[in-house]
Amino acid sequence: MTTLSRRLFGGLSLATAVGITAACGRDAETPGGGGSGDTSAQPIAEGQATGDLTVWAMGAEGEKLPELLKGFQEENPDVNVTVTPVPWDSAHDKFTSAIAAGTAPDVAQVGSTWMAEFVSLNALEPTPEEIDTSVFFDGAAAATEVDGTAYGVPWYVETRLVYYRTDLAEQAGITEPPTDWEGLKSMAAAMQEKADATWGIALQPGGTGSWQTVLPMMWSNGGGVVNDDNSEFTFEDEKNAEAVEYYQSYFTDGIADPAPAQGTTEQDFASGKVPMFISGPWMMAAVEAVGGEGFADKYSVFVMPKKETSTSFLGGANLGVFQGTQNRDAAWKLVQYLSQPEVQVEWFAQSTDLPSVESAWEDESVASNEKFEAFHEQLGTAMAPPNIATWEQVASKFDAQIEQVCKADLDPAQALATTQSEATTIGTGA
């Protein structure tokens, strides 16, 4: 996800296998898996998939994927697929080590912020022309592209909405969710004053992953962190400073907790201590599990309030085929299978991962839930972080400055100037 911070909530497990044999499928003598750097893609051979495939998937996806792939193996009885679950918190290092050693899997779930880095390591195959990338959400498809070439496909998508307690909002005199920044802040303050909430909204006061909430506010205000061709950083844009100042005001005005306890979002939301927070679709099941029977009727979600636009973070994960695979055709056939609308709907039922194929949202099992429909609406305007090889490093520097803004009252313009300087030193990796 991005390096989906969301997946840190997922369970971990030991390696699970589908099929009876495993094969590394790599050219171990060639660093990076043996790729030549050619951005052209060979056609996928016709016929059924055969042979051995290794697949890496992270967290909960790694646990659930073997069940989904039973359908692929029924359609392709001469293929053996071995799925290895990898914990999210160690996945990036495991991938880079495997790429360097030439032992990467044939197919893998790839965090959306890793694409450019892995392409710079000559690790991923370009997407064959037979795969129609127009069926995916535009923002998700764009997140697989590096220098105009697609590497892999979006597997699932996620975006962030505002969760709020509808019962407490009514108690505060609010019957309709806000549509702009001013309305969101007024609602949060009203929840404190009139609904006995300790804090009006939960916002991350810096630290790892806080950029995932702050950057969309910068986009919403017309700002951004790179120029159009991703060649230069633009953190010092005045529109960015306005957005960070707005974010900071929740802490300086005492509406958001500058030192929240870790791992209490669901409990605080269910108790009413903190009646609003911003997160993704996985939190629906989490808050309902804590809130108990009937709690689903006490909360709802709404799209991000706008300044110039209503823009949220676009995350999720992609599927990539690694250079040097010795079973390339079967690997891409597996990617094609997982991109079918009906398979995406089946995966949604198993995992609640939102389909990346737009037509899958027409299925009743997805479209009938009003809360999921709000996520669908937000996906139309959600944006992904810049697809540059160094984004993980730059984001870490940005997170540190956000923490100073929220906890030490650092001037937003100064924080952005520092981030600009640090990011420029790191470079884009081009």
From TrEMBL:
InterPro entries the UniProt entry points to: SBP
Gene Ontology MF term list: maltose binding
A GO BP entry: maltose transport
Keywords, in A-Z order: Signal, Transport
N-terminal signal peptide: none
One Pfam family from the record: SBP_bac_1
A GO cellular-component term linked to this record: ATP-binding cassette (ABC) transporter complex, substrate-binding subunit-containing
Record-linked Gene3D superfamilies: Periplasmic binding protein-like II (3.40.190.10)
CDD domains: PBP2_MalE
Family listed: Belongs to the bacterial solute-binding protein 1 family.
Protein name (Swiss-Prot/TrEMBL): ABC transporter substrate-binding protein
